[in-house]
Amino acid sequence: MELRDLEAFSAAARFGHFGQAAENRFMSQSALSRAIGRLEDELGVPLFDRVGRTVRLNRYGEIFRARVEEAFKALDTGWSEITDAVDPNRGIVTMAFIPSVGPILVPRLLREFRRTHANVRFQLSQGGAGSVVGMLQDGSVDLCLTAPDPQVPGVEWVPLWKEPMILAVPEDHRLATADTVQLADLAEVPVVTLKRGFGIRQITDELFEEVGVTPTIVFEAADVPTVRGLVAAGLGVAVLPPSPDTHQVGLPIEVPISDVDASRVVGVARVTSRYMPAAAHAFLEHVISMAETPRS
């Protein structure tokens, strides 16, 4: 079944006249008749009733016409989607990111990008480091912002920003007035952290392992605000990135860590072997270029 035969059929159904349909399709009337005949032979039923010099769809033709129109609409949609996919100023960027970069970094990246790519749409997802890398691997997203480096075969991770990790402590904690703190001194101190699968949890575990301390974990949360809140309530201390907000009464005190290189690097990841739409590629280049701009 050829596309040109379907187009001839659609024109004949629309005009109700083979001659007018042939003229519309820039073909001879005999060529159009042969196209209709091929379809009828293939389907095994007539599609038109001939009435004098005009033609009219019969019940088989009406059924077939509905499906042909659906097919043409699907083709048009596919054409539009492909056109958008190869146009860096249109289309959709699918991206996942870890929660801790959601309040400041992601909005900043999107705001700056949309100044020059206003017609690009975004489909965003959020989750722990393991979750967002999983979305990237299974093709749910084109890009993900995560920390630390997932070190997964086939996934390219480009480092963007390095930021310190601090120790968050309650306002009335003995370390709240300290200039710095050493993780090696926290062997008996209750620790609040994130669940396994989050990048911050991985970094926390690695830092304590580096100083030879097994932390006394009293709670594993599913998000950073809960960790901060429980620290403020006095449940324990936590290794976290700095808060994007200025300190307020009732919030944890942030103390620099001095005995290890307590930091994390946020990067952008992609699957190297997978085709990336033009809009997503443009956004990737934008993100990398923004890494050279100081964060605010």
Question: Main sheet, how many strands, which sense, barrel?
Answer: 5 strands, mixed
Question: And the CATH topology of the largest domain?
Answer: D-Maltodextrin-Binding Protein, domain 2
Report low-confidence residues grouped into runs of 5 or more: none
**Count, helices:** 9
Shape: rod-shaped
Number of strand elements:
12
Give me the side-by-side strand order of the main sheet.
4-3-5-12-6
Q: Mean of residue pLDDT?
A: 91
Tell me the CATH superfamily of the largest domain.
Answer: Periplasmic binding protein-like II
Residues in helix, %: 25-40%
- First-to-last CA distance: 60 Å
Question: What structural category arises from helix and sheet content?
Answer: alpha/beta
Number of domains: 3
How much of the sequence lies in strands comes to: 15-25%
Name the features.
296 residues; alpha/beta; Arc Repressor Mutant, subunit A; D-Maltodextrin-Binding Protein, domain 2; five-stranded mixed beta sheet; three-stranded antiparallel beta sheet; 9 helices; 12 strands; WH_DNA-bd_sf; transcription regulation; activator; transcription; HTH lysR-type domain-containing protein
Produce a short descriptive summary.
With 296 residues, the chain is of the alpha/beta class.
